[in-house]
UniProtKB/TrEMBL annotation:
Required for disulfide bond formation in some proteins. Part of a redox system composed of DsbI and DsbL that mediates formation of an essential disulfide bond in AssT. It comes from the Bacteria. It is a multi-pass membrane protein. The chain crosses the membrane at residues 79-103. Interacts with DsbL. Belongs to the DsbB family. DsbI subfamily. This is Putative protein-disulfide oxidoreductase DsbI. PANTHER family: DISULFIDE BOND FORMATION PROTEIN B (PTHR36570), PROTEIN-DISULFIDE OXIDOREDUCTASE DSBI (PTHR36570:SF1).
Amino acid sequence: PDPDSLFGVQGCSTDPTFPFNLPLAEWAPEWFKPTGDCGYDAPIVPDGVTLSNVQQWFVDLYQHSEGWYLLPPWHFMNMAQACLLAFGLCLILLLVMSGAWALKLARGK
């Protein structure tokens, strides 16, 4: 099994499927219509755009890495994996804070 297949990196459809089969790409195409290359995370700067030195450095960093990675030189953790990690950490923090709040309420009575 390919670990990236969980995030849909290996194959994409140009016809999106949304929960409950809602045609969101037809109702609000500027938000939901798929554009660009599927599964390609590297930045593509449109022709005629002038970037600052810092912006150009970041674009070059990710283009040379052939995609978006948390640590580009080592191809460590792609965008989808980093987002999943961030969501998991936020969920854990929320659970800890909720538990502390519930404990405070229980001790206050």
